[in-house]
Amino acid sequence: PPLSPSQSPAPSVPPSPGCWHRGVSREPGALWTEPGCRSCTCQEGRVLCGPVSCSIPCSHPLPAPAGGCCPTCTGCLHEGVARAEGDVFSPSDGNCSVCVCLAGNVSCLSPECPPGSCPGPSPSDCCSCHPAKCTFRGRTYAHGARFSLDGDGCTTCVCQGGEVECSFAPCPVLDCPQHQWHLRPGQCCSSCRDTPVPTGCFLDDNGVEFPVGQLWSPGDPCELCICQADGSVSCRRTECLETCPHPIRIPGQCCPDCSAGEHALVFSNNETFPSELDPCLSCICLVR
């Protein structure tokens, strides 16, 4: 049977045309981002573009990362300084507030100052409070006061926010062996024992000890040594000033004997002659 008007077939709707943009085919309704942060869409065969719309759900977003168009809330930008998520910091105005970065938002809190005294010195004068005093062995000390334990001067104590801390006074480093350390009555630190005053001079070469003031010759008759009061040895040489044409050299004597005068007998080299002092002695003339 023929179709009634109410049963006539529905008219066909032609499909929406796509878009061709900058050499690329786009499907109808497609949405994409062009360089320069421009958002484009394909509508009825036409390309419609406009600035990218950014939704920023935080108060202190960080600038868009490289290659991105919208700021990020993973971190915070506070007073020109980038803060990571969870960072705790103090603002630069110095009002003693403490701030934290959470989900791109910066929240700051001011400190609560206790009434009256506080347990320690006030940092940066944030709180108008006074450090607590110290009570120690029945006496009261102000904050920062220093005193000696039992008045002996060997310990130093200080009052810090209601607590007393004591330490021993430092002792100097001694330059003597430990067996010479000595702690005198009433002293806090040991000192070196007094070295005994030397009673003479000890010579290492022959092991002889000379008393203070002793004179001796170390082997050369022209050299004379004396033992000083501090244990040192002082030596001087004797200069022979008297000269004569025929000096007589006596063994063990520094200077030659010139008592023979001008009329002394002259002997040649290797000549022997009897001694005038002792007839039992025979002398020989040796030219040196």
From TrEMBL:
Q: Which InterPro entries match?
A: vWF_C/EGF_Fibrillin, VWF_dom
The VWFC domain extends over 17-74, 74-135, 132-193, 199-259
Which SUPFAM superfamilies does this UniProt record tie to the protein?
A: FnI-like domain (SSF57603)
Q: Which key words tag this protein in UniProt?
A: Glycoprotein, Secreted, Signal
PROSITE patterns registered for this protein in UniProt: VWFC_1, VWFC_2
Among PANTHER family, the record links this protein to: VON WILLEBRAND FACTOR C AND EGF DOMAIN-CONTAINING PROTEIN (PTHR47333)
Q: What's this protein's name?
A: VWCE protein
